[in-house]
Amino acid sequence: MLDAARVEIDPVEAHEAVRFLTKRRDAVHREGDWRPVLDELRAHPQGDLARSLSTPWRLVAMATAYEQVVDPGELLRARTEREVTDSMFARFIPASVRAVDEEARYSPERVHAWLHQLALQLESRGGGGNTLVLPELARSPGALWARVLYTVTVGLLMLVTLWALLLDGALGGMARGFSLLLVGIAVLALLHLRSKGYRLILRSAMWLPPWRSPLWAVAAKAALTGRNRWGFLVSSVLPALIMWRTLAPEQLGGMGDWAMALATLPMLALYAGLLAGHVLDAAVIGPSGWLRGGTLVALALLCPTGVLLGLGLRAGLGLGAALLPLVLFGLLYCALSGDTVMYLCWLLVHFRRVPFKLSRFLGWCHAAGLIRITGGVYQFRHREFQEWLARHPVPLTRPTAPARDSATARTP
């Protein structure tokens, strides 16, 4: 392939399709159901059915759709190539769901409806977009209400923060300068609305693997043995000194303040996350790694905020002093991780069209063979499948009853 000057993809011949289908395990066990289809391919190698199976993708999709429980003979009743592909794709989602999900977590109808909405999102971009990047959903042309919701959220947080600051009245002459600082933070948060976004923390530095993933050990080993190991060791001195200062007893130069130590613990987790995000490539972590990074930033800000709120309530401070840390946390989070907030706004706007735990659903679709992962993005299994879903908001046909006991059905 590296030395080739030109690569041509030839269509799959009818006899090759027959040989492929006869080797599928379930097709062998259902020889009576499959014999008319195979005879049609042998008798009419240039017919509608043969042309419909002339690509490897269509051939595999057809085998997946019909080899377990559905009678493939219905394809012989199709009068055009379009009808063949419509019937095949209509059966493809139920067969994929049945193959991977024995507990019926998602029904085929819901999977079809959700994937239809995602396909519409890609088709609305124009120019044939085929990559589904979750942080960019709120910046797509059809996500105006998500951007409006994000703008309103930032505006309300800024107004409530200013109101809490004025209500407390304890800052005196510093109130004006602090108010200007809040306006500056709000402006940084609104910069995320730009088409290319705006990041105080690089997104690539905050792609985190799953919490129990062995990639954390790989990241630690790479950081300690790689060429940047001295930089990581030097940068870890400050977090270590902070924890020593907060946890060590007074006799050893510390404060022994467990409340302060609780507030600084998330900062150590943030440092570990930055370390992992810097060492590991986003393609290795997967397309949902950025969402875990946003969650880590939220925890790093929320824990000290909760400590300050608890100390303020214990000291008997007013409503403004108790409310100020919470709204200030929200405003800072929008400035630091606006992509995550905009993504949540998009989910809230589309909560009836797509599942709220969208990344988990897409991971399930990847296991079912409906979605593929390419580097740090999601893609539909095939562009033709994406276009078909965009044209069909509901399944063309409902799944029929199994032709045999589901306990004996084999996974393709």
Descriptive notes:
With about 400 residues, the chain is mainly α. Among the domains are: about 10-100, no CATH class; about 210-280, no CATH class. It has helices at about 15-20, 25-30, 30-45, 50, 55-65, 80-100, 110-125, 145-170, 175-190, 215-225, 230-235, 235-245, 260-280, 280-285, 290-315, 320-335, 340-350, 360-370, 385-390, and strands spanning about 370-375, 375-380. The protein has a two-stranded antiparallel ribbon. A hairpin with a 2-residue loop joins strand 1 and strand 2. Helix 13 runs antiparallel to helix 15.
Descriptive keywords:
2 strands, mainly alpha, elongated, 19 helices, two-stranded antiparallel ribbon, 412 residues, disordered C terminus
Summarize the structure.
The chain is an all-alpha fold and 412 residues long. It has 19 helices and two strands.
According to DSSP, the number of beta strands is 2
Question: Which residues form runs of ≥5 with pLDDT under 50?
Answer: 398-412
The percentage helix is 55-70%
- pLDDT averaged residue by residue: 80
- Biggest sheet, in brief? 2 strands, antiparallel
* Secondary-structure element series: HHHHHHHHHHHHHHHHHHEEH
Secondary structure category: mainly alpha
Which helices and strands appear, and what pairs or packs with what?
Blueprint lengths: L13 H9 L2 H5 L1 H13 L4 H5 L3 H11 L14 H20 L7 H17 L19 H25 L5 H17 L24 H11 L3 H7 L1 H11 L10 H22 L2 H4 L3 H26 L4 H18 L1 H12 L8 H11 L2 E4 L2 E4 L2 H9 L21
